[in-house]
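Following up on my earlier message about FE2/S2 (inorganic) cluster. Here are the inputs again, as you asked, copied directly from the submission form:
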Amino acid sequence: MTHQQKSAEDESHRALAGEVLRSSRRQLLCGTGVAAIAAVLAACGTGSGDGAKDGGDAKTNTPGSTSGSQPAGPLATLAEVPVGGGITVGDLVIVQPTQGVVKAYSRSCPHMHNPVDAPKDGVITCPFHQSKFKVEDGSRISGPATTGLTEVKVTVADGKITKAA
Ligand code: FES
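Thanks, got it. Here's what our run produced:
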């Protein structure tokens, strides 16, 4: 084998290795994407678990709420938010600590502003560095975050949750 042939063969191997690496990376990213989509779908599921009751019969307004001009469309229905737990909707985590009492918090973690997850067992957790917050008031339980989650006012009317004006 000549030096020139050896170089061409080495180049061919490098190109093949690069393609394999790129392909593996695509598969990994694709797999991660599928896992993320599955997590989102699971979060948007039936609201089972966490002691959830999907009664959907509570039509009372959050104490202190008022009707007024609302931004477009409801965020969720009361029936979609498990009692004692919650769901994520866009940049919000919507919780129902007790039947008919609904609160919402910004999902932006006070630590480094990554999005927190939907609550489990009454606790909202940031998956990035494990800061934990109470469902009841968004206050900090533990973790590197030094403050609680920021509350976002919502109202409930006719079983629909909307952002307060
Ligand atoms: S970004 Fe949430 S704990 Fe660090």
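One observation from looking it over: The radius of gyration is 23 Å. Hope that helps, and feel free to reply on this thread.
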